[in-house]
Amino acid sequence: MRIVEKTTRGETVSFSFNGKSYTGYKGESVACALFACGVKTLRHSPIKGEPRGFFCLMGSCQECLIWVDKQKKPACQVPVSDGMEIASITQEDM
Amino acid sequence: MNPDIDLLIIGAGPAGICAALSAIRYNLNVVLVDQNHNAGGQVFRPLPAEFSNPSPPDQGSLLRQQLADSSVRCYFEHTIWNISSDLRVDAVGSQGPVHWQCKAILVATGTTERVVPFPGWTLPGVFGLAAATIMLKSQRMLPGTETLLAGCGPLLSAVATGVLDGGGKLAGIVDSASRWDWIKTSPKLMSRPDLSWQGAKWLHQIYQSGTPFYSRHVIEKIEIAESARLKVTLAPINAEKRLLDNPRHFIYTDSVVVGNGLTPSTDITRLLRAKHHFDRQLGGWVVTTDSECRTSVSGIYAAGDGCGVSGAAAAMKQGELAGLSVAHDQNRLDEHSYKRQETKIKNEWLKASRFGRAMGGLMALPKGLVMNIPATTIVCRCEDVTRADIEAAIKEGATSMDQIKAWTRCGMGPCQGRTCSEIAAELAAEKLTCTREMLGYFTGRAPLRPVSLEQLTGEYSYADIPLPKAAPL
């Protein structure tokens, strides 16, 4: 998924999502880093409970909201960092 | 309190950057605020600081360099959540809450992408053309191991070639426009032969790749298939963009990227109660400005695609004009110099917008496309509100956007209608047999983006609240 040509990435980082460990690169957003690891579902919709992933990637649609640093933040606006712990927002949380 | 801020610019895209660089020429004290980590907006999206790019500097990097070398005070990674009528701007950054008191504010927040719903559009792995552009440009990531692109407008070819250049695989391209729609636009596109040539090269590259291309087709539905893949059903449409009965095509793929044009971001201007007008060709509801970028609210200016989809080149010129206009309104230059500059920039802006507006026109929302949406399909993603829910509210007596919102919760979620309002409005106008103008839009409310009380209060706790002694009875 990551384009290699004409790109030099920074250091790798280790982070967790819902308790599972993943690797990404510094500078990647949580949304994209998870996507590159094959994780497309970030939460479930509040009323129908359907799986949702990122949609606009620019901080507008709020579909990619996740728990990070005890705050609800859009995963597309949060850069991954080493040791970061991320969790899905449950239907009750919404 | 910072009463020394002459101009606060919201949005560091092409319009915002050029407005900032223009305003400082007249010694204005300028602050530029953006949610992203650096300037560039959507069209000049920067790479993360941690990535390095061996390519020669492009227009985006040149603008960022000019900005960095200037006296403009940039506040990146700041999210504005409120603006009050006395021009106090409140934002949250990594260090906590900030606010600025300004003499003038320029809204240069551009557009958001519009996607017309269909069954399965909310599935993970289905996202916007603009989102795919962000992945390619600023994360150097392909939108999928295999990707199907659908929608309309120039973004389709831009993303297609981005995927091909990145070594990715395209399952197909589904364009709702017909070849005739494109041909009709080409005389206007000729005003920018360089960009038209770029477009032609893209089409050639796509043709050479052998990617299946479906003209005048739309995605009818997406379903989950085996091995976590997606099964996409394509359907042909007529000139009014309504589904035809003809046989369907089925495509299996990993990701689906879809976009049906751009619509101006009006959340800030609606919050400030500025006057708006509806123009389908310019993207929908547009903040009304005079020829010097002033909105109907004193001290509030607007520039760029937010004033009507006109492209990056036009946005840069309009931004420059806005900077000049603010300087003029704050008596920073003599009438003669102002007139000379004003005429020059306005002419350049007119020329630049010819191409951009022609492109914008290709992305106008056709009512027919919205009418295809099945009753049980979700329109408001935040609150899982379907087309049937919206139409039921109207049957029960809802006659405005705010009433539809109150009845169904459509537009009440975290995105505050940014994703769904155009679609909901189109459906409602049809049901009420009224115009989009008559129907109106959601009243703008703070916070502009979700923000927690903790982000605003920080270390301040309940125990810190000073309680005055109760008065004796």
Q: Could you describe the 3D structure shown?
A:
The complex is a heterodimer of chains A (94) and B (473). Helices cover 7% and strands 30% of the residues of chain A. By secondary structure, chain A is mainly beta. Chain A is globular. Chain B is of the alpha/beta class and 473 residues long. Chain B has helices spanning 14-23, 59-68, 129-138, 154-165, 179-189, 193-209, 267-271, 312-329, 335-362, 367-371, 387-395, 401-408, 421-432, 436-439, 453-457, and strands at 7-10, 30-33, 73-75, 79-83, 88-93, 96-101, 105-107, 111-113, 126-128, 146-151, 169-175, 213-215, 217-224, 230-236, 249-253, 255-259, 262-264, 276-279, 284-287, 300-302, 378-380, 385-386. The mean pLDDT of chain B is 93. The chains are: A mainly beta (94), B alpha/beta (473). The interface between A and B is large, with 47 and 53 residues.
What order do the helices and strands come in, and which of them pair?
The complex is a heterodimer of chains A (94) and B (473).
Chain A: E1 12-17, E2 20-25, H1 30-36, E3 43-44, E4 51-52, E5 65-68, E6 71-74, E7 85-88
Parallel strand pairs in A: 1-7
Antiparallel strand pairs in A: 1-2, 3-4, 5-6, 5-7
Chain B: E1 7-10, H1 14-23, E2 30-33, H2 59-68, E3 73-75, E4 79-83, E5 88-93, E6 96-101, E7 105-107, E8 111-113, E9 126-128, H3 129-138, E10 146-151, H4 154-165, E11 169-175, H5 179-189, H6 193-209, E12 213-215, E13 217-224, E14 230-236, E15 249-253, E16 255-259, E17 262-264, H7 267-271, E18 276-279, E19 284-287, E20 300-302, H8 312-329, H9 335-362, H10 367-371, E21 378-380, E22 385-386, H11 387-395, H12 401-408, H13 421-432, H14 436-439, H15 453-457
Parallel strand pairs in B: 1-2, 1-7, 2-3, 7-20, 9-16, 10-11, 10-16, 11-12
Antiparallel strand pairs in B: 4-5, 5-6, 8-17, 13-14, 14-15, 18-19, 21-22
